User: Fold this.
Amino acid sequence: MVAEKVSRDEFIEIFNTVGPHATSRRTGVTIRRVYERARTLRRQGFNLTSPMRPGGVPTDQIDYPEHIALTIQNGNVLIGSDAHIWPGPPSTAIRAFIKLIKDLKPKAVILNGDVLDFPRISRHAPIGWEKNPKPAEEIEAAQDILHEIEQEAGRGVQKIWPLGNHDARFESQIAQHCPEYAKIKGIHLSDHFPAWQCCWLTMINDDVAVKHRMRGGIHATHNNVLWSGKTTVTGHLHSQKVTPFTDYNGTRYGVDTGCMADIYSPAFRNYMEEGPRNWRSGFGVLTFKDGFLLPPELVTVIDKTHVAFRGSLIKV
Assistant:
């Protein structure tokens, strides 16, 4: 255990100075144990904050950390997934996301994977002679949109990006064909979005797991709760739903936040063959009161200029 190697005060000083991964290396304990002790100390009221380099990325982050831990006593977290950003005007859901950041002033914003699409570096064969954007064009378009989100959120709001399978295409392509380029600045997706903390999993109050995908199929939200044992927020399937699950431990929620892309976006045009799709465009809002999660809420796109939220039709 970490406690057997360094005292509580020593642990806090090391963690706040060099971050979780370097703490693991210095103390000789696993990163999992470091995160566990950090969560325990946060619950006890101690301040543990990973140091940040300019742009907001932890100084010790070389590879993406297993997960990022958040502690939120009171306030909102906005979670959107599957923006699949292409060059062009932002989707209705993205415009609504930016508006609600202004209205709700959340403690954190999470883009839960597949922010980009990257069809040109997909493992799937091209369909005919598709006119797909180049990776540089997608990155530039995403930088514009994420910059607007950053500006509206402000510096004090944590901005987290659990990577999705489409996002991973960027580095996978380079790693497969040019492995000797590892660690060169620019070959990591996060190099192009320095204000965002990239990870695979975000854990809020040790009770809510946010990651891009877990189980598949129409019962994914139900099965995610069973497999994780926690309220679990995912994207990937674009279905947008909240599934409560209650047992002797209380009520947890499986949440699919839907997709922030328009469901008939050009990114989906050819491989969906213009067929119907049981998807919904929008995102999710989590509200915490005294450390407890209230029932999750959804923001759902109604048409090109309106979303529904909390019984109101909001123009965006």
Summary: The chain has two domains: 1-51, 62-315. The CA atoms of residues 120 and 134 lie 7 Å apart. The longest strand covers residues 282-289. Helices lie at 8-18, 20-27, 31-43, 92-104, 135-153, 169-177, 220-228.
